[in-house]
């Protein structure tokens, strides 16, 4: 029987990063993945393919809406070739998953393909094509991720009533896509198909989209998406989704309890994700799950069994690839006897719509509720020379700082390239910068990053220069 210092179950961004860090630290490491390709949700049916389609559809939208103004004439009609778009996306996915294979080889990590299930706390059965192989490991890291969840009354047929996984490989552009759930995944994929020509209607239970992010971001994003002709039904409780031939009928109750009927040809159900432990046989090892089906862990990501750890989407916290990666690194370093630490307050959240939305730290709502005395500096993208040059005028940067100490407590932004810009907020907050610190740093001109400096200036005695 093959023996390891560490076995990782699941090869998503949590699992593969944990495996690499374990190997770097000198541990004999194995990774087990039930699918044929490595990389988990993120690389196969999540972050990477969704961004590939967002990029392609963005190019198309630019071509039909903005090229003329830029002085670029295209003789003939610009058309969507969805088959090629999906093929390019798959190519991007393949390059990335092969890259993980390369990294596993490079770090001498043994890869097992098959369903991993606990035999006991130090043995894992790996089932593939009716054969079972058992390996032994001193320590085990559960990184089995998550799957799309649904509502109990919705029957996903995966053809027209679909999850994000199917939305990444449609064979036609929907005429009318009804998106249930106004969160990150629904809005990103909704925008892809909107740009490609679909009518898109978002139905959201809450009274705002991207709940959890700062209210100012929700408002601005909704305003911009409405300009892009995305339709919204907020405060609507979906009660049935039915398919009749090629038609999908969604019924919901509005705020007043009145029934609203929406008809489309596709319905994307994006109401969140559930932790995935199916087939893991966690109980054989004595690993406890919590009431939400997540693997229960302490602050060191250790489960109820001392040599078994869990990370990523399958444990509490934000379901994000970079959070999973940090946790993978943390567990590997704990196993090596180090004392790593994750500041969960500084895990940024990003929505890759255009304009992009990004945030780190506390929202204004959270600070209000906690009774913290704060001040806000906000600066509009449209006042930037860079934004005018690219015609990406929507959005703003909002910096919230402690009223007394000026320490930055939250950075919230919407606009072009905010997904990358948020790194400045994370760095500043990691070093416990004050708004004045950011305000006094030189930011290259002309860049979108100047909005960060200007918002910091606005937060320190209202002294933005270009407002
Ligand atoms: P996963 O990536 O889910 O990987 C778990 C792996 O474990 C899977 O490969 C699974 O097959 C395997 N597995 C499960 N059980 C077993 C078993 N018993 N034996 C063997 N293998 C098993 N996050 C971001 O940060 N940025 C984004 O832009 C972003 N975009 C997204 C877009 C979409 C459409 C979706 C669906 C998600 C997106 N996410 C994004 C979320 C991100 O994909 C997840 O947070 C991330 O993949 C979690 O990583 P993980 O390692 O915990 O699990």
From TrEMBL:
Residues 4-328 form the FAD/NAD(P)-binding domain. It catalyses: N(6)-[(R)-dihydrolipoyl]-L-lysyl-[protein] + NAD(+) = N(6)-[(R)-lipoyl]-L-lysyl-[protein] + NADH + H(+). It is an enzyme of class 1 (oxidoreductase). Residues 347-456 form the Pyridine nucleotide-disulphide oxidoreductase dimerisation domain. Keywords: Disulfide bond, FAD, Flavoprotein, NAD, Oxidoreductase, Redox-active center. GO terms for molecular function: dihydrolipoyl dehydrogenase (NADH) activity. It comes from the Bacteria. InterPro entries: Class-I_Pyr_Nuc-Dis_Oxidored (IPR050151), FAD/NAD-bd_sf (IPR036188), FAD/NAD-binding_dom (IPR023753), FAD/NAD-linked_Rdtase_dimer_sf (IPR016156), Lipoamide_DH (IPR006258), Pyr_nuc-diS_OxRdtase (IPR001100), Pyr_nucl-diS_OxRdtase_dimer (IPR004099), Pyr_OxRdtase_I_AS (IPR012999). The keyword Transport does not apply. Binds 1 FAD per subunit. It holds the Pfam family Pyr_redox_2. Its EC number is 1.8.1.4. Its cofactor is FAD. The active site is a redox-active disulfide bond. NCBIfam families: lipoamide_DH. Belongs to the class-I pyridine nucleotide-disulfide oxidoreductase family. This is Dihydrolipoyl dehydrogenase. It comes from Flagellimonas marina. The gene is lpdA.
